[in-house]
Amino acid sequence: MPRLTRGATPAPKIDALSPRATLPGGDIRIHGERLLTTDEDLPVLTCGGTATHLISGGAQYLLARVPEGAVSGDLELNPGTPRAMSGPYLEVAGQIAEEMHPIGNPAIDQNGMIYTTFSGSRGQTVPVSLYRLDTGFCTIPLGNAIVNPSGLALDKKNQLYVSSRYNGTVYQVDEEGRAEVFAEGLGLATGLAFDPAGNLYVGDRSGTIFKIDRQRRIFVFATLEPSVAAYHLAFNPEGDLYVSGPTTTSSDAIYRIRPQGEVEVFFQGLGRPQGLAFDLHGHLLIAAAWRGRRGILRISPEREVEWAVSGSGLVGLAFARGPALILATHGGLFHVPWDTPGWLTFRS
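Structure (tokenized):
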């Protein structure tokens, strides 16, 4: 280790980054030592060679915003100076589809095809309301047969199902985009999810979770508080249904519904919780705000919270091959590599 001469200023030290991935425009927190001292100008923090915007900071932390146009790369503090410090690698999500309007999770089939929507305002008819992205992220329009497509789900046979909050109908959609009514009369139908037995669950944002069995019989499975936007549904590996949906409160809940229909609060304190999904380790990932920050949260079965992705406007996510996350915002889709082991180094 080099010896410090008298009067020399120790170099800064970066200990952790939270989170390790962000959308362009997202905020990141760097934790360490001697990051900012009172006798110097604000430090320069770059990601992949692009300067970030420092929002605030101190000796042990910096809060920075990653600008539009930034790419993934190593964080560097004060590059090109005697106090330069190389930090961890930051993944910046790349956009793969734009001019969309999803309101929940994308769906990814067994061949790696990604499905998303242009949902639009209530009753709005658009030239194309359903899209498919191939494995090269080329966008393929699938027609406008469904008004206000809302939730997407795939069954074990790779059959796509789409809900419409406009007419309370769930459709089966073939590879050419032709839609056939599967079930109707489901209120303001939004989120969709299949259980391990192949039953389909539909979130009616006015307060009901419907269950549709394999004979297409419809049952009321559970009743929750109405949502001001949409219900979002996902099953955990144990077969419990998790539901999110923003309400008029500022401290929304994620609900867990047991297979017999018993409802309990799994986690509370979120702002505008949206789409959710489970990783292979049983951790819940959800698009939401928490403690003044927005992005994708990762919540363990023990309810421990970590930030997974930073960014605004997120409405959903899905796991893809790579491994990777496909992230849905109000305006399009983004792709970010997802290396689960050791991915997160700092817990908020």
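Residues 1-7, 340-348 have pLDDT under 50 and may be disordered. The domain at 96-337 is CATH 2.130.10.10 (Methylamine Dehydrogenase; Chain H).
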